[in-house]
Amino acid sequence: MRTIRWGILGCGDVTEVKSGPGMAQAANSALVAVMRRNGELAKSYAERNGVPRWYDDADKLINDPEVDVVYIATRPDSHKEYVLRCAAAGKPVLVEKPVARTYADAEAMLEACRKAGVPLWVAYYRRAMPLFLKVKELVDGGAIGKVRYGVIHHQEATPAEGFEALPASWRYVPEIGGGGVFVDIGSHALDFMDALFGPARDVRGIATNQAGLYAAEDTVTACVAFDRGIQVSGTWNFAAYENYERTWIVGDKGEVSFSFYTPRPIELKTLEGKQSFDIGFPKHVHQPLIQSIVDEMNGQGTCPSGGESGIRANWIIDQVLADYRSVHGIRL
Known about the structure:
This protein is α/β, with parallel strands linked by helices. The chain has 2 domains: 142 residues, NAD(P)-binding Rossmann-like Domain (Rossmann fold, 3-Layer(aba) Sandwich); 170 residues, Dihydrodipicolinate Reductase, domain 2. It contains 12 helices and 14 strands.
């Protein structure tokens, strides 16, 4: 099999451990080029990680003939522009989540890749991680019987010192990220529910800002109806007293619970008793998804997070945040 050569647009913090090393360590895969607008930072990343080439110009990396696939790890407000450039250059592309600030932009990105005949993948890497594959195995295999509903609970504390103690980040600026932390990391949970139950059919939600620390929403409650009448409710609050998150999937014969963002054991509870599965997270959490992309490009399988499924979380988010965006005059 051929070696798939990766280039990264936006070699920031997210690529240091989560993704960049995974591209170098996956089988038949190599990281050959990185780009950052600050050339000194791009050069530093390349030198520290043994990457042969670095750029401070996105088009130079995209058009590098030795780059087979581009990974876009920039802010969400630039995703559409870079995906369209990759499509025009005939380059397959993996884009960070959320795919874009809105579902309309995400659709345009997918359509551009379709017309160009190049794959679009989305970095919903939990679809390929062993812990979440085990959850899917338990649910699909009938361990909890027929699924009735799901519950997502996610809360995080804000620093006692207030907003000034929060790291400067696009995650609090809707015009950049499409919303707040709910959009940034809550999208992982919405996407995984899609992986379990298929496309959402109906969405109801309320978003507010309780703490008033920034422009984006900090509190969201939503209910999403999937195929087979399965309903998943969720509450996200980023102004609580402590960090805690857990998700439950309940069936007519039991329940399975797990955490999205910390490697806590999966718990299976039925009338026969309880079981625990301590699987943990891989060191480089993107690597299993990266491997699936490399394998797909070599004709050896299919990545579980393609563009068609990857943009559907954006559709859910748009429904949930529509009123909040309208009331607060947020234009995307």
